[in-house]
Automatic annotation (TrEMBL):
Gene3D superfamilies: Zn(2)-C6 fungal-type DNA-binding domain. One of its GO terms (biological process) is DNA-templated transcription. GO terms for cellular component: nucleus. Residues 29-59 form the Zn(2)-C6 fungal-type domain. It is found in: Nucleus. The keyword Metal-binding applies. The keyword Cell membrane does not apply. GO terms for molecular function: DNA binding; DNA-binding transcription factor activity, RNA polymerase II-specific; zinc ion binding. Keywords: Metal-binding, Nucleus, Transcription, Transcription regulation. This is Zn(2)-C6 fungal-type domain-containing protein. It comes from Trichoderma harzianum CBS 226.95. InterPro entries: TF_fung, XnlR_reg_dom, Zn2-C6_fun-type_DNA-bd_sf, Zn2Cys6_DnaBD.
């Protein structure tokens, strides 16, 4: 307690607190005393002379000191994490979520995608709502036939909403759709350059979105189909990383079968299977190269039937895993996923130089037979999964074929498996030549080109040994069909160039 005999406490001196202000902890005279050149007793907030003369008393650095105090107060740690006041989501938030996801989760933070600026040239390329609908309609009638990773009903139903809240991501997807189905004479088009730059801009902004991943897969298909390497190989790897960042690789491990969210779940599942297919397809040319993605297990869920996918109405009884897939109603994309699973085994056998391939061959041919039945039932001319499966068997045959072991003593016959593949591929080639090639090429996938090349390469060797007219004619049929597909996929010119080089090498042997 204070008494009347106690003197009043002196006013505080103008000395900054060392623990908070560091180098600003100095003694100073007020501005008025310094200007009058008189001795200041430095009493804070007003010195004695200024009080006596009733003049303003200002100390130098006072505003800076107050600002610094407020900044320090704002960043001082508090004991309760739940009471932390965090800034709005920025690119630093995304970095934090990657560098220490545990702390990021405990702090109850959430990354919100940034609004990416859409330039006038992008807007002009995309066009109006009617233009977007026209672009998507062409896409769903072409590339979507063999790579159905986008839900048509979902895309149409959410178009206006995405124009408002996900404009940049939607525009990238629309331009990628256009890129994937457009026929070009050279791969390095202004559209391709614009899409790649826009993709980089969105990814650099820290946006993580399924729309961006769908667009990236379509860009990878464009690069693969037009022989743009190493871009195609690197883009597929980038898709795998991006999908993992979104957690999409987990989509094949569970199925909620909930009507309200199954389309989004199914889109994620289809995207991951598409990445698995592309990763394995790219390694068919070099089976000993490491895969970017891990193999799917038998408990992995397959895509739903394509008819269900197109309708947007789920039948919970039609959901299968790799282990339970014994139905004729799986759908072509589910068969494609099965083909990816078998391709994994093919690549392992080839890289390990295993000779125990009989069972694997039978399994692949069984899948091809079922796929062909479904394709004929649904009147689809070309099954991408059949082409990939055939290419897988040829990869198993390649080591022995390169040594001439697939050719009989007469030099005119292939092994039984290769003979079946050869005839099926020749039938495809003749259908292309005698049918409406423009219409057929619109729905033909680039996977078909690889198969045509591999079979042509086999018959080129046979023709060189047999010197018969029939074998030469087969090579020319395959070449002609490849040139027709070349109007759609520019990678064909590279394959034809390789055939010419093989022919020169055979002559030189």
């Amino acid at each position: 307690m204070s008494t009347s005999n106690e003197s009043p406490s002196p006013r505080p001196r103008a000395v900054a607190n060392h623990s908070t202000l560091g180098v600003l902890a100095l003694r100073w005279s007020c501005a008025t005393c310094r200007q009058s050149k008189r001795r200041c007793d430095k009493i804070y907030p007003k010195c004695t002379l200024c009080v006596q003369k009733n003049t303003p008393c200002n100390y130098p650095g006072r505003r800076k000191r107050e600002k610094l105090k407020n900044r320090i107060k704002a960043i001082l740690p508090k004991h309760d994490v739940r009471q932390l006041s965090f800034p709005s989501a920025t690119s630093s938030f995304i970095a934090e979520s990657f560098l220490d996801p545990e702390v990021f989760s405990k702090a109850r933070l959430k990354v919100v995608n940034a609004d990416v600026e859409v330039t006038d040239d992008i807007t002009e390329l995309v066009g109006s709502v009617l233009d977007i609908q026209a672009t998507s309609a062409k896409f769903f009638k072409s590339v979507h036939m063999w790579m159905p990773i986008i839900s048509k009903p979902h895309f149409c139903a959410n178009l206006l909403n995405r124009l408002t809240y996900k404009r940049a991501e939607l525009f990238l997807l629309v331009l990628s759709m256009k890129l994937s189905y457009t026929r070009v004479k050279t791969w390095n088009t202004p559209l391709y350059e614009t899409v790649k730059l826009f993709q980089f801009k969105i990814e650099a902004s820290g946006v993580l979105s399924t729309l961006v991943l769908q667009a990236s897969i379509l860009i990878s298909l464009y690069e693969l189909g037009h022989g743009i390497y190493p871009a195609a190989y690197l883009s597929v790897g980038s898709c795998a990383r991006y999908a993992t960042a979104l957690g999409i690789e987990k989509s094949i491990l569970s199925s909620s079968a909930a009507q309200g969210q199954w389309i989004e779940e199914e889109e994620c599942r289809r995207m991951w299977w598409a990445i698995l297919v592309l990763d394995r397809y790219l390694n068919l040319s070099n089976p000993k190269r490491h895969l970017i993605t891990t193999d799917a297990g038998l408990e992995s869920y397959l895509p739903v039937d394509d008819e269900v996918w197109e309708s947007g109405v789920l039948n919970p009884d039609r959901i299968y895993t790799l282990a339970t897939a014994n139905s004729y109603h799986l759908g072509l994309f589910a068969r494609f996923a099965q083909a990816a699973h078998l391709l994994s085994q093919v690549l392992h056998h080839v890289s390990e130089e295993s000779n125990e391939t009989a069972q694997l061959r039978r399994t692949i041919f069984a899948l091809v037979n079922v796929s062909n039945i479904e394709a004929s039932m649904r009147r689809l001319e070309y099954c991408s999964q059949s082409a990939v499966c055939y290419a897988g068997i040829l990869a198993l045959d390649y080591s022995s074929f390169s040594k001439g072991m697939c050719i009989s003593d007469s030099g005119q016959k292939l092994s039984s498996e290769s003979a079946i593949i050869s005839q099926a591929t020749l039938d495809m080639a003749l259908t292309l030549i005698h049918g409406d090639s423009d219409q057929l090429c619109d729905v033909a996938s680039p996977f078909l080109v690889h198969l045509l090349y591999k079979v042509a390469s086999m018959h080129l060797r046979i023709a060189h040994k047999s010197q018969t007219r029939g074998d030469r004619e087969k090579v020319e049929i395959l070449r002609k069909s490849m040139k027709l597909v070349g109007s759609r996929w520019l990678c064909t010119s590279t394959y034809l160039s390789l055939l010419e080089k093989q022919e020169i090498l055979l002559v030189m042997e």
